[in-house]
Design brief:
This protein is an all-alpha fold. It contains twelve helices and no strands.
Length: 251
């Protein structure tokens, strides 16, 4: 039980702005096993957003409430995943070859591709939050994004020889993928009646499809995934999820 609590703490402090819960750096094994609980971190963020939505919707107009929720959503992770998305877009769409693209991925500067992609994602999230019929979508989306990250860590090769991402990749396997999937599936199953069965099914298909497209494109440009790609997958998964759940499925 202590090992599980430690791994949950590692996942929380790695993926959010919560102050470090451990008084020491996590071991590579703890980093790998924490992958199981990435969707759980998403669930905690989602519950925060759900509760905040209930409060804000009684005080502010929908659009203002959506703007505040989007700000809190981004702040929860310290814009970690959003930064990964920006770096990913610049890196994969730029560069002459794989080595050059890997260099750009490390570059903290933001280019025009990144600005366009980041602005589009924020606008889509904002519009979807402002028009969702079921606030449960605010819980499902963060879970879906972090489930994609967990699966990407386990399923695909890592491009760099060292670093936190490498430690995580080398120590995460099918048990972590299964655990993460169980958490995500339980969340989705519990909330499916409130967000709609058709919407739930479409969300699963579209989130997985968008992740597959991003991963295949990544592997055609560089030799493996990186921490930035993990962040991009989370952002793409969240965006596709909440946009899908905001659709009018009664038509």
């Amino acid at each position: 039980m202590k090992a599980v609590v430690t791994c949950v703490a590692v996942a929380v402090q790695f993926l959010t702005i919560v102050p470090p819960l451990l008084r020491r750096p996590p071991s590579p094994d703890e980093l790998g096993r924490s992958v199981t609980f990435f969707p759980l971190v998403g669930l905690l963020i989602g519950l925060l957003l759900f509760g905040l939505h209930r409060v804000l919707s009684t005080i502010f107009p929908d659009l203002l409430s959506a703007a505040i929720l989007l700000g809190v959503w981004t702040l929860c992770s310290g814009a970690l995943h959003f930064d990964g998305l920006l770096d990913t877009v610049d890196g994969l769409l730029g560069g002459r070859d794989a080595d050059d693209r890997m260099r750009i991925l490390r570059d903290a500067r933001v280019g025009s591709f990144a600005v366009a992609a980041g602005g589009t994602v924020l606008l889509l999230k904002f519009a979807a939050i402002g028009s969702i019929g079921a606030a449960g979508a605010l819980v499902v989306a963060p879970v879906a994004g972090r489930w994609l990250t967990s699966m990407a860590v386990v399923l695909f090769s890592y491009a760099r020889p060292a670093g936190l991402g490498r430690d995580m990749k080398d120590n995460a396997g099918w048990p972590q993928a299964a655990g993460a999937t169980a958490i995500a599936a339980a969340t989705l199953g519990f909330l499916a009646p409130s967000v709609g069965i058709a919407a739930t099914g479409a969300t699963v298909v579209l989130v997985c499809l968008s992740a597959w497209i991003l991963v295949r494109f990544t592997l055609s440009r560089i030799p493996g995934l990186t921490g930035d790609i993990y962040g991009a997958l989370c952002e793409v998964g969240e965006t596709v999820c909440i946009v899908t759940l905001a659709a009018n499925w009664s038509v």
